[in-house]
Specification:
It is a single chain. This protein is mainly alpha-helical. Among the domains are: 321-373; 382-471, Orthogonal Bundle (Arc Repressor Mutant, subunit A). The protein has 19 helices and twelve strands. It has helices at 25-41, 59-72, 87-99, 110-123, 187-197, 210-222, 253-258, 263-272, 285-291, 306-319, 322-335, 344-355, 362-369, 382-387, 390-405, 411-425, 433-441, 449-456, 458-471, and strands spanning 12-15, 44-49, 81-82, 103-106, 145-148, 155-160, 164-169, 177-179, 202-206, 229-233, 236-237, 302-303. Strands 1-2-3 form a three-stranded parallel β-sheet. Strands 4-5-8 form a three-stranded antiparallel β-sheet. A two-stranded antiparallel sheet has the order 6-7. It is elongated and about 110 Å long. It catalyses: tRNA(Glu) + L-glutamate + ATP = L-glutamyl-tRNA(Glu) + AMP + diphosphate. Monomer.
Length: 473
């Protein structure tokens, strides 16, 4: 890979997860901010899997990360880079640092290292190996590491786009290991080499990496490479202000999907965690891309707010395509092992438009759809059967005849018919509405009566009425 000069390169961001577990919600937000900034500037969004730790990296974790990013709609503009495949390039850069006098070989034993670490701590500075300026080199055939030779004094400035200028004393920055004794590259080396070679112009990541930015800056400078812009975003905390953990509920993107949140809802919510555009709370991707600038990210940690997430997700559910929602509900019900009618997909497509407005998640939407998926004949609730006295049964039979004759089976027409029927009977809805609802829904949660019948359709509505009336005949 070649690296364009700082004057002609467009914005290139990257998300670089370590495949040692699931895609955490904090990582998802980092990926989103990188994706939004790349889209906002007309640049590129890249993906790099930082899998140099071969013992802890797993194929399952890689798959989970890719699946989470795909579900969120955050796809890389180029093929993902797997860091472990670039080990020869990392070693090549270390050789260049050795030749420049900016790295050195270190034969310290584990015991010697511990003694040196204690001494450095007592003296108030970072560890410095005695091999840093040794007059005679050690035996290259013996096990050793290669360390970076950082400046002994002065300061390193990280001019962060979120945190502002942050200064580090070079005496506090240790001579970090670049290559381990087995030749494996370390994190800080590999990150710098890969970001440079991938042409990354903006490193947007969690602020737990701020200290690494100083060490990485020194490596960039030692190689005479253009520095990327750093932007370290605050972590996400739980509602109680503590660092997000299992006790706060879902953490993995997959868990949020399983709980019934939809990608656009979660994208909107995550964008609002630490960034915002005035008082705008609910917005689409085009608006987020137009408005987003990483310099507007706040410095303070964001708090996960379930009520706000539910509200934002509900707004996106209302805007979502009905056929897509029906399919998501069907998949959720199948996953739950629900007993479904053969025409469940058709029924869901009819009922979703009538009930989606009140739902916060796909799982809640599935609950709102349950009445339409009951398989005839089904038992009525005791409350409903008690309401079916002779007078009510006779009245419902007359209503059944009116319904069978109406040519218009739409929400508004059905609402007018019910109102007209009540007037013709000289009664209020209370005289037949509750029992009719119980017959049509079996006691499940449902919307207004006219919406219930519109969702069920003519045949199913009349069939459920016939079942109940036949029992009372």
């Amino acid at each position: 890979m070649s690296n364009p000069s700082s004057t002609d390169r467009g914005v290139v961001t990257r998300f670089a997860p370590s495949p040692t577990g699931f895609l955490h919600i904090g990582g998802a937000r980092t990926a989103l901010f990188n994706w939004l900034y790349a889209r906002h500037t007309g640049g590129k969004f890249l993906l790099r899997v930082e899998d140099t730790d071969r013992e802890r990296s797993t194929e399952a974790a890689v798959a989970a990360i890719f699946e989470g990013l795909d579900w969120l709609g955050l796809t890389s503009d180029e093929e993902p880079v797997f860091q472990h495949t670039r080990a020869p390039r990392h070693a090549e850069v270390v050789q260049q640092l050795l030749e420049r006098g900016r790295a050195y070989r270190c034969w310290m034993s584990v015991e010697e290292l511990e003694v040196a670490r204690e001494k450095a701590r007592a003296e108030g500075h970072a560890i410095r190996s005695p091999w840093r300026d040794a007059p005679e080199p050690g035996d290259p055939a013996l096990p050793h590491v290669i360390r970076f030779k950082g400046p002994a004094d002065g300061e390193t400035l990280v001019d962060d786009l979120v945190k502002g200028p942050v200064t580090f004393r070079n005496t506090d920055l240790d001579d970090l290991v670049l290559l381990r004794a087995d030749g494996a590259p370390t994190y800080n080396l590999a990150v710098v080499v890969d970001d440079h070679d991938m042409g990354v112009t903006h490193v947007i990541r969690g602020d737990d990496h701020l200290n690494n930015a100083a060490r990485q800056t020194l490596i960039y400078q030692a190689m005479d490479w253009a520095l990327p812009a750093f932007a370290h975003i605050p972590l996400i905390h739980g509602p109680d202000g503590a660092k997000l953990s299992k006790r706060h509920g879902a953490q993995a993107v997959g868990e949020f999907a399983d709980m019934g949140y939809i990608p656009e809802g979660l994208r909107n919510y995550l964008a609002r965690l630490g960034w915002g555009h005035g008082d705008d709370e609910v917005f689409n991707d085009a608006q987020a891309i137009s408005w987003f600038d990483v310099k507007d990210v706040v410095k303070a940690p964001a708090r996960l707010d379930w009520a706000k997430l539910n509200h934002i997700n509900s707004q996106h559910l209302r805007l979502a395509d009905d056929a897509r929602l029906a399919d998501l509900v069907l998949k959720a019900l199948i996953a739950q092992g629900a007993n479904l009618p053969a025409d469940a997909a058709t029924r869901l497509l009819a009922v979703v438009p009538q009930v989606k407005e009140g739902a916060k998640t796909i799982l809640e939407l599935a609950e709102h759809c349950a009445f339409a998926l009951k398989i005839r004949p089904f038992a009525l609730e005791e409350k409903t059967t008690k309401q079916l006295v002779a007078e009510t049964v006779e009245r419902l039979a007359r209503l059944r005849d009116r319904l069978a004759q109406t040519p218009d089976w739409e929400v508004e027409a059905l609402g007018s018919l019910l109102k007209s029927f009540a007037e013709s009977e000289s009664v209020g809805f209370g005289k037949f509405g509750p029992s009719l609802r119980g017959i049509l829904t079996g006691g499940s949660q449902a919307p207004d009566l006219n919406k219930i019948m519109a969702a069920l359709g003519r045949d199913e509505s009349l069939g459920r009425l016939d079942d109940a009336l036949a029992e009372r005949a």
